[in-house]
Design goal:
289 residues; alpha+beta; eight-stranded antiparallel β-sheet; single chain; 6 helices
C-alpha cells in the first residue's frame, strides 16, 4: 500500500510538471506570436504616420482599412496571451500608439469618403439624397472639432485640410450648377473633382479629365504601359444629364474643322464616341460610380 501511494504521488507530480511545461510552452508561443505581430504593426504605423506627415490624404485613405484590420488582428493575438500583465504590456507597446495614429485622421478619412459618396450621388442625378449626405458632412466636421479639442490630438498638416476644402468646394459648385439647371458645368466640375478617370474597357489605357485652361474643356489621353501620349483636347458643348456633345480636333491643326463627338451616361458608365485619324468609330467607356 505504501509503495502504491509513493507511485501515485510521483505520477501526480510528473503530470503536474508536464502540464506546467506544456502551458509554459504555449504561453511562450502565444507571446512570441503577439510580439512578432506587434513589430509588423509598428512598421505599418511608421508608414501610416509618414503619409500623415506628408499631408497625403488620398494615401492615408488607401492604407486606412488595412491598418485598422492589422490593429484588430493584433488585439486578437494579444487576447491569446496568458497573464493580464503580459497582455497590458503588449497593448501599451503596440496597440495604443497605433490607435492614436488612426484616431488622428479618422474624421478626415470619414469626411473624404462621405465627399466621394456625395460626388457619386451627384453623378447619378440623385441630388436630393446628395443634399442629405452633405448635411451629414456638416455635422461630421463639427464633431471632429469637438473630439480633436477634447482629445488633445497632434495637429495635422495643413495639406489635409486643404484637400478636404477643395473637394467640398467642387461639390458645392455642382450643387449650384444643378440649381441653375447647368448640366454642362455639373459634368465639368465633377470630372475636375475626380481628377481623371481610367477607361473601364479591358485592354484600353484611356484617361479622361477636365481641362481647366479651356472653357468647358475635356482632356482625353491614351497611356500605354510604357509611355503616354495626349490624344486631344475637346470642348463640352451640350449635356442634358444623360446625353451630350463635344467638339474635338485630333490633328491639332487650327485650319481643320472641328468634329463633333457624342457621349452618354447610363447606369454610372460614361461612353464617349469619336472618329480617329483612320476614320474608325471609337467608343471608350469610363465607370463613374
Amino acid at each position: 500500500m505504501k509503495n502504491f501511494m509513493v507511485k501515485l504521488v510521483i505520477l501526480v507530480v510528473a503530470l503536474t510538471v508536464g502540464l506546467s511545461t506544456q502551458a509554459s510552452a504555449t504561453s511562450s508561443a502565444a507571446y512570441k506570436n503577439a510580439d512578432n505581430r506587434g513589430k509588423m504593426l509598428t512598421n505599418l504605423r511608421a508608414q501610416f504616420e509618414d503619409s500623415i506627415d506628408a499631408g497625403n490624404l488620398e494615401l492615408i485613405d488607401l492604407s486606412y482599412d488595412d491598418f485598422s484590420a492589422e490593429i484588430r488582428t493584433m488585439e486578437r493575438a494579444i487576447g491569446k496571451v496568458p497573464g493580464a500583465k503580459n497582455r497590458k504590456s503588449l497593448l501599451e507597446k503596440y496597440v495604443t500608439p497605433a490607435k492614436v495614429a488612426k484616431e488622428r485622421v479618422i474624421y478626415e478619412v470619414s469626411q473624404l469618403r462621405l465627399l466621394s459618396k456625395i460626388s457619386s450621388l451627384q453623378l447619378a442625378n440623385q441630388f436630393d439624397i446628395a443634399e442629405q449626405e452633405y448635411a451629414k458632412l456638416k455635422r461630421l466636421k463639427n464633431r471632429a472639432i469637438e473630439i480633436k479639442e477634447a482629445g488633445g490630438y497632434e495637429q495635422l498638416p495643413v495639406e489635409i485640410g486643404m484637400a478636404l476644402e477643395f473637394y467640398e468646394e467642387q461639390i458645392l459648385k455642382v450643387f449650384e450648377a444643378y440649381k441653375n439647371g447647368d448640366q454642362v458645368s455639373i459634368l465639368i466640375n465633377l470630372l475636375y473633382t475626380y481628377g481623371y478617370l481610367f477607361s473601364s474597357t479591358p485592354d484600353d489605357y484611356f484617361i479622361l479629365g477636365a481641362a481647366p485652361e479651356v472653357e468647358n474643356g475635356l482632356w482625353l489621353g491614351y497611356q500605354s504601359p510604357t509611355f503616354g501620349d495626349e490624344i486631344f483636347l475637346g470642348r463640352l458643348v451640350s449635356f442634358d444629364g444623360v446625353k451630350g456633345t463635344y467638339e474635338y480636333n485630333l490633328s491639332w491643326d487650327d485650319e481643320e474643322t472641328f468634329k463633333t463627338g457624342e457621349f452618354e451616361i447610363v447606369n454610372g458608365v460614361l461612353s464617349l464616341h469619336y472618329v480617329d485619324l483612320n476614320g474608325t468609330n471609337v467608343t471608350v467607356t469610363f465607370e463613374l460610380f
